[in-house]
Design brief:
Helix content is 44%, strand content 4%. It has 13 helices and 4 strands. The strands form 2 sheets. Strands 1-2 form a two-stranded antiparallel ribbon. A two-stranded antiparallel sheet has the order 3-4.
Amino acid sequence: ARDRPLFVRGNHKQPAQTVPRRFLEAIDAKPFETKNSGRLELAEAMLHADNPLTARVVVNRVWHHVFGRGLVATPDNFGKLGETPSHPELLDYLAKRFVEEAWSIKKLIREIALTRTFQLAATPTAKAREMDPDNRLLTSAHIRRLEAEAIRDAMLQVSGSLDRRPLGGSENSDSNRRSLYVRIIRNRLDPFLTVMDAPVPTSTKGRRDVTNVPAQSLTMMNDPFIVSLAERLARRVRDDERLKSAEAQISQMFQLALNRQPKPVELANAKVFIDDLAALEKAGATPQDSWRDLARAVFNLKEFIYLQ
């Protein structure tokens, strides 16, 4: 093992001065005293008690995934160009507890999830909206869209198709297993996950992009896999012998997808939609699967893909 030169702007054809094997210069510029690669020393430096960065980065990323926004809103950048913490004392406290609890992410998530802040509703008061329009002070929950994998898993769950087997290798994108097991091929990414902002697996991504583009709505309506899930949801409610009426079946569809009963106007509109398509079929129009199309409409509700 030996020290390597700095490549100017990443160009291996422009070597500059030799850089010794060491930790981040801003924290500890002393070179490692080793004849080996320095990887072991780097790992020890990252977890050293004098290093304030690693525990805070981990805690901030966990907070980001739980709340939708980190205490430092730039989880990939704790430097000068990143944002300052909204709650620096809280970040320090959680980082200290995290280390004391043997770096247990499970205990960290449990502590965060038991807080009052985690249990807040997404609707702020008028005063909070005026004083904290960006909700940096966490006066309410952040409204945020489910991640691409969670949207796919939710549709599988609602349609009654989700395969919860934890064992086995990767699967094709039309598999009924959780999105965690969908095969990732760099030059042939899953179209649905990609259009819903799943990151490209060529670099790390601490905070995903959240876009709102027409391709997402078109995919949610027309993707063959989603259409098949809508058909399964439709069969699930139509084949339930306990549901004796169309109103009961519509109510069950809303209960499965949104965890609530439909409002009277929603129930009435859905019933009219089903009846109108049935009338068109009787009049000789192209046959339509009205229940499947209703299920697709439910999948496309903002309430289905957003956390509030």
